[in-house]
Amino acid sequence: MPANVTRRVLFWVPAAIAVAIAIVLLFRPQPVAVDLVTASLGNITVSVAEEGKTRVKEVFVVSAPLPGLKRRIEIHAGDAVAAGETVVAQIEPSDPSFLDVRSMAEAEAGVRAAEANQRLAVAAVERAEAELDFARAELTRYTRLAERDSISQNELEAAQRRARISAAALEEARAGSNARSSELEQAQARLMEPAGARTQKDEDCACVDVYSPVNGFVLQVMNESEGVVSAGTPLIEVGDPRQLEIEIDLLSTDAVRVNPGQRVLVEAWGGSDPLQGVVRRVEPFGFTKVSALGIEEQRVKVLIELMDPPERWERLGHGFRVQARIILDEAKDVLQVPQATLFRDRDRWAVFVAEGDVARLRHVELGVQNGLKAEILAGLEAGERVIVQPGDRVSDGVLLAERG
Question: What is the pLDDT, as a whole number, of residue 366?
Fold first, then answer.
């Protein structure tokens, strides 16, 4: 072979080999960097959490039974009270108010009318007495005549009847006179002026005592200072803080998944460990509440019963803030994967399993899900490694490289 040919061969053959190697390296499939997680056994809990507050189950508001001057309330929040025994307030009934000119004229006219009616009633009594005296005298005369057979029996009976009628008329007139006297007293009472200010209240006060309706403790004194109150003014709240429950407001979409008897964990209440509770009632009506972002939400009240002994939560009181977590569903010692490994393949759930350094599509059946983890009923085995958040580059059969 001539020398120049040999030189060309020695130059181009290595160049061709290098180009071939570059082409192979350029078009060789590159592994996709992914994050992997191992399917393992564990517990999954589905819950809904919301802030709530404690409240005494039965709160009684003691109100003023009548208008008047309320003396200063001497009991304080936390004091024990006994039903029908503990005086929680004293109220001095108010005097009648002053009459204006028109009301005064009407009251005076009423007095004059009542006096006239009384005089008429007195005259009626006098007339009835006169009629009765005459009837009795007539009956006496007719009785003597009847004894001598000077009159008939019918005439005697008629005289007796007239005497009885006259006696009844006198009683009727006297009753009318008494009624007219009472009307006069009422009319005169309307003209009574309010009494002046008392200087010795403690001695002269005809106060009405207000008693606690139940056994328990004073929760709140709502109107402590002395002052004039109207009937129905709230004075104190009474209840038993040893009978606490928790009230939370859930979104209506969450409330439909809550049922009485479900387990509750009471967190952020001040103790180191959560308190145990159960759902007692889901109220059957919703209400509108505006959130901190200004969004109207439909809320439902849920009441929770504390199951731990009172000694654990004795420092809790009425209106304390807590965090309640209602357990909607639980699965223990089940195969689970993070929710981020799952995706929809048409109408089925699927994951990518790393078999060696190759991705394999695997359809799975799901059980309990809580947004973070999902129970795997079929399609995976414990210990298998699945891809977290597979992207568009991951497909069945693609090469994988785990991120360090």
Answer: 92
- What is the spatial distance between Cα 389 and Cα 404, in angstroms, rounded to a whole number? 16
User: In the structure encoding, which two tokens stand for residue 256, read together?
Assistant: 């439909």
Quick one: which H or E segment has residue 188?
helix 153-189
Please return the burial class of 322, using the count of CB atoms within 10 Å of its CB with bins 0-12, 13-18 and 19+.
buried
Give residue 20's Cα distance to chain centre.
81
**Beta-ladder partners of 221:** 236
Contact in structure between 242 and 54 (CB atoms under 8 Å): no
Q: Which residue has the tokens 């199951």?
A: 307
For 216, the 3-state DSSP assignment is: strand
As given in the structure block, the two tokens for residue 330 are 């639980």
DSSP, res 341: G
Length of the chain as a residue count: 404
Cα–Cα dist 260/45, whole Å = 18
What's residue 2's pLDDT?
61
pLDDT value at residue 302: 95
Dihedral pair phi/psi, residue 270, rounded to 5°: 115, -15
**What six digits make up the tokens of 397?**
């059969």
Write down the pLDDT at residue 263. 93
Here the tokens at position 143 are 């009785």
Helix, strand, coil distribution of the chain in percent, nearest 5: 30, 40, 30
Dist CA 395 CA 31 (whole Å): 11
339 secondary structure, DSSP code: G
**Which parts of the chain have pLDDT scores under 70?**
1-13, 15, 19-29, 95-99, 191-205, 404
CA dist., res. 366 & res. 378, Å (int): 7
Tokens of 236: 């104190």
